[in-house]
Amino acid sequence: MHPITVYAHRGFSAVAPENTMVAFRKAAEAGAHGLELDVHFTRDDQIVVIHDETVKRTTDGKGKVRELTLEEIRRLDAGSWFDGEFRGEKIPLLSEVLELVADRGLSVNIELKNNKTAYPGLEEAVLEWIGRFGLVDRTVISSFNHYSLRKIRDLRPEVDAAILYMANLFEPWNYARNVGATSIHSYWPTTVEDMVKRSKEAGVPVRPFTVNQTKEMRRMIHLEVDAIITDKVDRLLKEIRDAKE
Ligand code: G3P
Ligand code: MG
């Protein structure tokens, strides 16, 4: 059967607080092949792993990530909101997650959250870190900001850069090539047979997000997408195993 890479969305976020080290470790332990994570710059230009522009939803603090220093951010509890057993989890630095990725031989999908907030220099800084950890061949950089992806490819043409989008784009494989990107991270409802087939023919891998329903997992496996991004790592791995039998 066609091999499908399983990316744990914000780590194994079905069972642990999203974008924390415990969620990333649990993803690796469950057998995920890769980790998906979101990055922002702090006030002092450190790259931290968090989804939202603000710390409100996933920590005990408040304010914009961009307006807090790393020291302020590291004092926050990023685990209790999910469950008391995760109290004391911190917002990780990108470098901490990349260390885990390198140690465990995983792949990584770094999503640049520079669509709402401009983070000048984020592309250069992320490329610097993946180079330092020797992860260029195992990294996909994605973003809803496609100008940023063009910049990534201009800086490092060997890096896989994936367009993220929600709309039902017309011929996204052509659009991706026009951007200078190399792959497609499509919203699952727009990931349909003709689109997957024609993207593959064009040599553009398709990796839908965020696929959590069993029925949709089965549909994606049947479509032979290249990878699937999910919160439910264990469920998806089981569906892939079952499809092989
Ligand atoms: O990278 C796929 C997915 O994470 C994009 O949306 O909002 O979950 O970061 P979001
Ligand atoms: Mg994301």
Automatic annotation (TrEMBL):
Signal peptide range: none
Domain GP-PDE positions: 4-240
InterPro entries: GP_PDE_dom, PLC-like_Pdiesterase_TIM-brl
Name of the protein in question: Glycerophosphodiester phosphodiesterase
Species whose genome carries this gene: Salinithrix halophila
